[in-house]
Design goal:
The protein is 45% helix and 15% strand. The protein has 579 residues and is α/β, with parallel strands linked by helices. Strands 6-7-9-8-10-11-12-13 form an eight-stranded mixed β-sheet.
């Protein structure tokens, strides 16, 4: 029996590693063979079970059979290699495929390594060098200046006009990309020096984009018209003649534009509008298009990005009224960044501007390296502080959605003066080991591994990411909700189901590292941190939550005096979606 169980466990580990098809069965086998004693109540003492695996106690670390541990490590190494070799395409080609217009991969010597179909069609064939398609001397000069620049900016945006006679405005986006994303083993030419992703966006500044830009920054119609003229290459004298105004009037209006947008000069205004318009065009990752805007409603759902202090890119979603009271929403794991139309409409009615940043390693936000535990929490808090600074927002409502409550608490602890109110929804920042049996089976397995076998967590999370990439995302979502009948009903709503599925794919698209950080943090008790705040903690928890029982929020309220807990009748764990 001992040999048989060992073989089953090792087989399950490799199965989870190599094939997403057997994911569910492998997870069940791992759970049963490693943690079976915990489920039956025998995990309170250190004793070797039938598999030769000793769980340990609350006061002693787990003891792992060295032979089994070696298989865990080997499986993880295989997983990393296979994941690298068997990816659908190099990252550079995936970038090209996602681009809505002509896009190229260029190296330091101006060689064009690859291009997408839009570029081939535009050029009626393949180009070899940068100057074969950028034949305008000014355009070529700008591109070369960016490629040879020592600046560490990851995204450079500058406007240019390919054909002035037709008055067609375009914007060039140039981004330095990691050398690893250009994989020579998959048919790409090895770059000389650095590699760059170059995209050409036909802007034309349609009314829908300029209206969004106007509402986002509170510009007047005249001011946005002047910004468009500047971005189209017009001089002040030309703008004054066309608008029937004096040059001093145009200068005063430009000063107002600079103040409202936080731009230092006219080139900054031009870059901002070009980048905004291009960003609206390439935000195809949104599962539904931006909602319409009219004179009575500033309703918006749009995708944006900023560059952080260390050059990392942060992606965030803006939902609700762009001129409303700011709410920073820390998302759940691995979904919870995008709200359904009903919630956005409610935010608009309540004059709320909801900013939902992807944390590092989630979605397309760049991963934060060499940070774990408290340092990780502090760095994520600093990222959001930068977001508020760049958007000129002095204070905001801070909201944590389930796992996000831990991040909301850390932000409030580090930057109390930037917080007007502090909320948690569907999970407070607290944990007790005895609660583990209250969790649905898949969350329970993740928490057990995080508590008793953390070295195995990357393997399990990477297997989960592979299962999601294989197209089984909705099955994962169903498993998360299976012990909460009310939430099963919620995900029958097509809009909510599609939002959660897409968010889950985005949340896991970079694999295990960031997800592991969240799972490990979820095993910690943050009540001491909460007690040290001079801020009321408001908690909303669904009465019918079968994923995180309301009793956990009640326990937090008992431990943290002054907590305001509201139990929402009829709501489950998906309170943010259903109510």
């Amino acid at each position: 029996m001992l040999r048989l169980n060992r073989d089953k466990l090792i087989s399950a580990v490799y199965s989870a590693t190599l094939s997403p098809v057997g994911y569910d069965e492998a997870m069940e086998t791992i759970d049963h063979l490693i943690f079976g004693d915990l489920a039956s109540g025998h995990g309170d003492k250190a004793s070797e079970d039938a598999n030769g695996f000793a769980i340990g106690t609350d006061k002693t670390p787990p003891v792992i059979d060295p032979q089994i541990a070696s298989h865990f490590q080997l499986a993880q190494n295989i997983q990393l290699r296979v994941g690298h070799q068997n990816g659908e395409k190099p990252k550079a080609l995936m970038l090209l495929d996602a681009a809505p217009g002509p896009a190229y991969i260029v190296d330091q010597d101006e060689n064009i390594i690859a291009m997408n179909g839009h570029a081939e069609h535009k050029g009626k064939g393949k180009f070899q060098k940068l100057n074969t398609f950028a034949d305008d001397p000014d355009v070529l000069k700008d591109l070369r200046a960016c490629i040879t620049s020592d600046q560490e900016e990851k995204l450079l945006v500058f406007p240019s006009t390919l054909n002035r006679s037709e008055n067609i405005s375009t914007c060039f986006l140039l981004r330095k990309i990691d050398a690893d994303s250009v994989d020579g083993s998959k048919g790409l030419i090895e770059p000389v020096g650095n590699a760059f992703f170059l995209m050409v966006v036909d802007l034309r500044f349609e009314k829908s984009k300029t209206e969004l830009f106007r509402y986002s920054y509170g510009l007047t119609p005249a001011e946005v018209d002047i910004a468009v003229h500047l971005a189209s290459g017009r001089q002040l004298t030309e703008i004054a003649v066309e608008r029937g105004a004096t040059i001093p009037t145009i200068r005063t209006q430009i000063k107002s534009i600079k103040r409202k947008t936080g731009s230092r000069d006219i080139p900054a205004i031009v870059r901002l509008l070009c980048g905004y318009s291009a960003g609206m065009l390439i935000s195809s990752q949104l599962s539904s298009p931006p909602l319409p805007i009219n004179s009575k409603s500033a309703l918006i759902k749009s995708r944006h990005q900023i560059t952080l202090r260390d050059g990392r890119r942060m992606i965030y979603l803006q939902q609700g009224n762009p001129n409303g009271t700011a709410v920073v929403m820390f998302h759940n794991l691995p979904y919870g960044i995008e709200l359904p139309k009903m919630a956005i409409e409610a935010a608009n009615r309540l004059n709320l501007r909801i900013l939902a940043p992807y944390r590092p390693g989630h979605g397309d936000s760049d991963m934060l390296e060499n940070a774990h535990g408290d340092k990780w929490l502090d760095e994520v808090a600093a990222d959001v502080y930068e977001l508020l600074d760049q958007l000129a927002i002095p204070r905001a409502i801070i909201l944590g959605h389930t796992i996000g409550s831990i991040y909301a608490l850390r932000f409030a602890k580090r930057f109390p003066n930037r917080v007007s109110h502090l909320f948690a929804v569907s999970r407070p920042p607290i944990w007790r080991k005895e609660w583990i049996e209250q969790l649905p089976r898949r969350q329970r397995l993740g928490m057990r591994i995080a508590l008793y076998l953390p070295q195995m967590l990357p393997l399990i999370m990477q297997a989960t990411a592979a299962f999601i990439r294989n197209g089984d995302t909705f099955k994962v979502v169903q498993t998360f909700c299976e012990d909460s009948p009310g939430d099963i009903e919620v995900i029958k709503n097509p809009e909510i189901r599609d939002l959660i599925v897409q968010d889950t794919r985005d949340g896991m698209k970079q694999g295990a590292p960031a997800v592991c950080q969240d799972v490990l943090l979820s095993t910690r008790d943050f009540t001491d941190d909460a007690r040290s705040l001079n801020k009321t903690f408001y908690i909303l928890h669904g009465e019918a939550d079968g994923v995180v029982p309301p009793s956990q929020s009640q326990a937090f309220a008992e431990q943290v005096p002054g907590t305001r807990l509201e139990i929402v009748p009829g709501a489950g764990n998906l309170l943010m979606y259903s109510h």
